[in-house]
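Bumping my old thread because nobody answered last time. Still need a sequence for this structure:
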């Protein structure tokens, strides 16, 4: 039996209809009744009902995304603070996030590493290993790669990432690299590449 977009959303996120708001439950039940009618519909009636179901399912999927919007935003913030990600303060200063273990290793190599307070947008240089315990987020200064004065196209940015073997990247990291294509849809086509958005996260998988 065909799986509709909203049904895929529910299955992939292990959500049961009973967990949803009453109005969504009612609409999904109505959809399921129409789906049963489709099995008995003939010819033109079948085609019309099939198109209606496709449209209703897309609307339901959009409403499910909206229902879980806060969770999406929270997950995006967590993605930004994963080791290797780029994180910018409101003044535009950009950091590269490192793990606690890596922060200690950098300190032991006499390399400059910082502890970040992302709520207050402040940083403190790690001057002693005991300083590490005062922070939950660690970073080094991020230096923007030189581009010889020419802005990279979105496809060129993906070329660079793909060549380095990077297949997953956060939306914010792409934007900080100068990526201009809007990143809202679950699938974004850029030249020979396709970007696939993860559920409940603004992390994209790069494929070609």
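Sorry it took so long. Here it is:
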């Amino acid at each position: 039996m065909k799986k509709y977009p909203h049904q895929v959303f529910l299955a992939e996120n292990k959500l049961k209809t009973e967990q949803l708001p009453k109005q969504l439950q009612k609409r999904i039940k109505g959809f399921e009744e129409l789906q049963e009618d489709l099995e008995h519909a003939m010819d033109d009636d079948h085609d019309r009902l099939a198109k209606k179901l496709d449209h209703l399912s897309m609307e339901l999927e959009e409403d499910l995304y909206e229902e879980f919007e806060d969770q999406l935003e929270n997950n995006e913030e967590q993605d930004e603070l994963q080791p290797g990600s780029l994180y910018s303060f409101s003044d535009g200063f950009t950091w590269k996030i490192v793990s606690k273990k890596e922060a200690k290793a950098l300190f032991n190599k006499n390399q400059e590493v910082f502890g970040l307070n992302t709520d207050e947008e402040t940083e403190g240089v790690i001057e002693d290993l005991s300083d590490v315990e005062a922070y939950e987020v660690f970073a080094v200064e991020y230096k923007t790669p030189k581009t010889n004065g020419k802005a990279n196209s979105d496809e060129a940015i993906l070329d660079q990432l793909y060549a380095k073997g990077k297949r997953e990247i956060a939306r914010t990291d792409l934007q900080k690299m100068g990526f201009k294509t809007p990143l809202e849809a679950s699938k974004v086509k850029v030249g020979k590449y396709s970007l696939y958005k993860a559920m409940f996260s603004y992390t994209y998988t790069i494929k070609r």
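The chain has three domains: 5-67, 74-141, 154-207. Let me know if any region looks off to you.
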